[in-house]
Amino acid sequence: MQLAILTGFGLAFMAPWLHRWLGRYTPLMMALWPMSIAGWLALQWPVVLAGDPLLLEWAWVPALDISLNFYLDGLAWLFAMLISVVGALVLVYTGEYLKGERDLPRFLVIISAFMTSMLGLVLADNLVTLFVFWELTGITSYLLIGFHHDDPAARKSAQQGLFVTVGGGLALLAGFVMLAQAGDSWSLSVLGQRGEQLIGHELYTPILLCVLLGAFTKSAQFPFHFWLPNAMAAPTPVSAYLHSATMVKAGVYLLARLHPALGDTLLWEMTLSLVGALTMATGALLAIRETHVKKLLAYSTVMALGTLTMLLGIGTRDALVAFVVFLLAHSLYKGALFMVAGILDHATGTRDVTAMGGLRGAMPRTAAVACVAALSLAGLPPLLGFVGKELMLTSLLGALPYSGLVLALAFLGAFLTLAVAAIVALRPFFGPVRDMPVTPHEAPLGLLVGPALLAGLSLLFGLLPGLLDGLVAVTVSGLGVAEPGVHLALWHGLNPTLGLSLVSLVLGSLVFCYWGRVRLALARLEPVMRHGPEWGYERLMAGLVRLAEWQTRWLQNGHVRHYLAMTLLVLMGLVGHALFLRHRFEIDVSVDAYFHEVVVAGLMAASALTACLMRSRLAAVAAVGIMGFCIALTFVLFSAPDLAITQLLVETLTVVLLVLVLFRLPRFTRLSTPVERWRDVIVAGSFGLLMALFMLSVLTADALPRISDYMVANSQPLGHGHNIVNVILVDFRALDTLGEMFVLALAAIGVQAMLRFHSDNDVVSSERTTRGDRPHG
Amino acid sequence: MVRSGTLILSVAARLLLPLQLLFSLFLLLRGHDAPGGGFIAGLVASGAFALYFFAYGRQALSAMLKVSPRDLVAVGLLLGVLSTLPAWWFGEAFFTAQWWTLPIIGFKASTPLVFDIGVYLVVVGAVLTAITALADTARTQGAND
Known about the structure:
- The complex is a heterodimer.
- Chain A has 33 helices and 4 strands.
- Residues 764-777 of chain A have low confidence and may be disordered.
- Chain A folds into 4 domains: 1-260, no CATH class; 264-521, no CATH class; 560-706, Four Helix Bundle (Hemerythrin (Met), subunit A), CATH 1.20.120; 707-756, no CATH class.
- By secondary structure, chain A is an all-alpha fold.
- Chain B has 6 helices and 2 strands, in the order H-H-H-H-H-E-E-H.
- Chain B has helices at residues 7-30, 38-56, 58-65, 69-82, 86-89, 111-144; strands at residues 99-101, 108-110.
- A two-stranded antiparallel ribbon of chain B has the order 1-2.
- The mean pLDDT of chain B is 82.
- In chain B, strand 1 (99-101) and strand 2 (108-110) form a beta hairpin.
- Chain B has one domain (7-144).
- By secondary structure, chain B is mostly helical.
- The termini of chain B are close together.
- At the A-B interface, strand 2, helix 29, helix 32 and helix 33 of A face helix 2, helix 4 and helix 6 of B.
- Chain A: It is found in: Cell membrane; Membrane.
- Chain A: One of its GO terms (cellular component) is plasma membrane.
- Chain A: This is Na(+)/H(+) antiporter subunit A.
- Chain A: It is a multi-pass membrane protein.
- Chain A: Keywords: Antiport, Cell membrane, Ion transport, Membrane, Transmembrane, Transmembrane helix, Transport.
């Protein structure tokens, strides 16, 4: 199965070629991949429903306890199903929406890579694997927000989204490491059973704070909500998929996944429910201010994410049932609404809701789809959104000691959402016909299939909520609730919740009717808004740039001698500390050497000294060369032929490269004062002394076991080779070698870039001078 | 700066190049059991190309190589990464070495060998990239002066 998921990356890799063969049908064909994943998930349904999660094992780096195990329980099933179904629909939609776009192949590459990463994220059982996929979704999201990379605003939004989520990702990584130490396992399914051990652990608070920071930034919780509306610079299929149905829910998914492990404390409940409720209210308030249809939807997504977090924070059985239903409902209606927003954009040429009106006549089918989805967003019967909202309000009543505050915020969110739904669905399609930049026309089938199917599912599950009983029960039991019997219904009888719903209906309608005035009133808050979290983010980034400039000036001022001195000093500090303070320091200075060894050593010292004192560069190079050959000779004397050959070859090539640069360098000049030179002598001398002491002390100490014994013993039986050096390089320590290969490749690219850049600069500057000279000469 | 060399150098380079390259392949293939290996072999091959470069110049080197040195680096990295994957297929940990014996010639084929070829290509590519970049700069500067 893991292989099947990972083929998604292969698909991403192949996308440009597929596009060459299949042309405009590529997205349709690629939609087959998520569909087949969905088919596989559907086949696993009986197993998952029976309540025994599927654990698919696959080793990755067993020595570090990192595995590519996949864990399929109710929660993972729900998320994976959403990702693959919505993914397939989005691909179909993309085929029509981005028809004729020159960069369609690039889009397909990134979006299928995203799809794969997202599936990996929700299925991963290992913390490290989950983190890898987590960051991959962040990077692909960055590339998709900045898809129109020639637009500076899109670039800025992409960068903002990346910095916020990756910053949180760093905290998350720290949290994961601490979590694994406290819980003594990297496996999420194991950690889920060690809740008490984790809660009692002294690291509990830092773990929780780090994990929450990661999840909150990813899921755009207050005060990190500002990146999500800006992410609307992405093409609409991306907004529908990443920024409403899937990626932004990754944070919520993580919180749900860790609920059995970390939940059930006052800190968890307080933070999640308050932050969630605050996010809800902020999102709803900011949504009402907007007239840009996609940003309106984005703020309402922020509001929905807040709701989900809040429900997890409350953590009672009712709240968790509401969590699952609301999550599903939101993915269905918000995906549909975003796709409708894209249709409106195409059909009318504007994204401003106030500029649209009376489109019902021109686009009856789109209007129908939009109305169904918006009813679900508004939380009106008979749609799934209504079921979700009722459950949410019920779970809030009397659940917490401070539930009054949370309830008030949630209620504010609920009726403002209703107004948002009305604005999105009623405003463009009803009322007087307005002049729009493009004459409106009905959307083609390719654009309508996705939203129609999602809206239809909202309606189906709303009318027959009993269909979801099994799914909700098994998901909730995975969240740590023992008693799973769940019966969803549309009609709960006359109760306080229904009353609240009715009041919010009235208030929401009022807000919609007087929307213009509400906007004006909110506009007065503008000066306060301007100093919100986004302002803080801008200030922080500016400060970071200043700090970076300052430390670059100080540490990396472009003089190699400065770098060298800095590197040596740091190394001296570390080695010296380890040598003198951390270990028993003893050396054996009894000399036991043959005559020829002494000669070689003396030659080395002499050539080093010569290289330092020489005035001519060529002589200095030659002296350094002599030293290199002496080192090779030492290797030969101590029977290490491989090292000797390597050293000789490296020396030879160094000479070749030096010859190439030699003639271009300026003559030796005195750039430093005598004081600086003496300082350098002291640094260099003490470094040499320290290294000598270090070597002697290593040779003297016998306490440490020699690592080479293992290599010598196992080279032939395990590595099938007699040459131990090579077996170490390509087998025992192959990962290190692979790293070195990348370093070498980067160095080559660096050399080329630096020289090319440099010579281009020269060419440009010389062109500039000639051009400047011409008028005069 | 770098011009075509003297007659002796030209003839020697022409004769030595195939020998050196053969020797580097020899070192590469025997590396697992005797002194040698991808890194050393790569250095020998780079030395051979460097000699050819000194004798005949930048253009001749590119014409003979036919591919850009940077592509050699890329192919090498790709081979290195690819050699890590077969282990996954056999359900073992990432990077576990796999060994096969080719039936007729009795040659030991293995993922470490593929990896070693990757090392070889990266080393050759990196050194040649540096040499050609330096030579190009020297030439543009010569043209500017």
